[in-house]
Amino acid sequence: MTISADELLTTTRSVRKRLDLTRPVPLELVRECLEIALQAPTGGNSQGWHWVVVTDADKRAAIGDYYQRSWRRYYESGGSARRLFEDDPVRAATQQRVSDSAGHLAEHMGEVPVLVIGCISVPGLPQGNQAGLWGSLLPAAWSYMLAARSRGLGTAWTSLHLAYESEIAELLGIPGDVRQGVLIPTAYYTGETFGPAKRQPLDEVLHVDHW
């Protein structure tokens, strides 16, 4: 797939309903994407990340069960995506579509061919602002998603599994001093490619020299 940097950055979408649950994803392709992800920046060049790639059907199903449980609790809460911007009919409709697709993914998470969990080594979570910690993992996770997109793979950024982080850590043998930061379902996608999403105008969120 030949794609410009601007197109790659503006068309890498969260793919949920269009993940192909029947087509195997070669592990070598996932490795290629992770090799690119390892070029991302980390604080002090610490490179404390770890990547757990789950292809085993039983383990994927177990993670999917935990994820679905977490989704149900989130969906029923007042903070779920469908409750945002209820006073704006246009944005409310978009949020409902997001919620519907997220619900679909929750139902099928355990069927996605590859689940990638991005983790980071840390003795204990720091107090206060944790941007320095997660900033040494999350850019690499986004790089993985961009690399996957350029290879015809769909992904989605998810973190609802973290409600069951300890259970999933036990399932996968993740050490106690390694924390999970993101779960990225990975599969080929169905249908045509993707376009840029509608976003807020830049001038509504841009502050130059002063808020």
What does this 3D model show about the protein?
The protein has 7 helices and 4 strands. With 211 residues, the chain is of the alpha+beta class. It has a single domain, classed as NADH Oxidase. Strands 1-2-4-3 form a 4-stranded antiparallel beta sheet. α2 crosses α6 and α3 packs antiparallel against α4. The chain starts with a helix and ends in a 23-residue tail after the last strand. 27% of the residues are buried. GO terms for molecular function: oxidoreductase activity. This is Nitroreductase.
Using brief descriptors, characterize the structure shown.
NADH Oxidase; 4-stranded antiparallel β-sheet; 211 residues; alpha+beta; 4 strands
Concise synopsis of the structure shown:
39% of the residues lie in helices and 13% in strands. It is of the alpha+beta class and 211 residues long.
Structural class label: alpha+beta
Described by its quaternary structure, the protein is: single chain
Give me the CATH fold name: NADH Oxidase
* Helix share bin: 25-40%
How much of the sequence is in beta strands?
Answer: 5-15%
Using the alpha-carbon principal axes, give the shape: globular
What is the tally of beta strands? 4
What is the H level of CATH, i.e. the homologous superfamily?
Answer: NADH Oxidase
What count of helical segments does DSSP give? 7
Widest beta sheet: strand line-up: 1-2-4-3
Distance from first to last alpha carbon:
41 Å
CATH architectural type: 3-Layer(aba) Sandwich
Poorly predicted runs of 5 or more residues = none
CATH class: Alpha Beta
Q: Taking Cα atoms only, what radius of gyration do you get, to the nearest Å?
A: 18 Å
Protein name: Nitroreductase
GO molecular function: oxidoreductase activity
Domain Nitroreductase: 11-178
InterPro entries: Nitroreductase, Nitroreductase-like
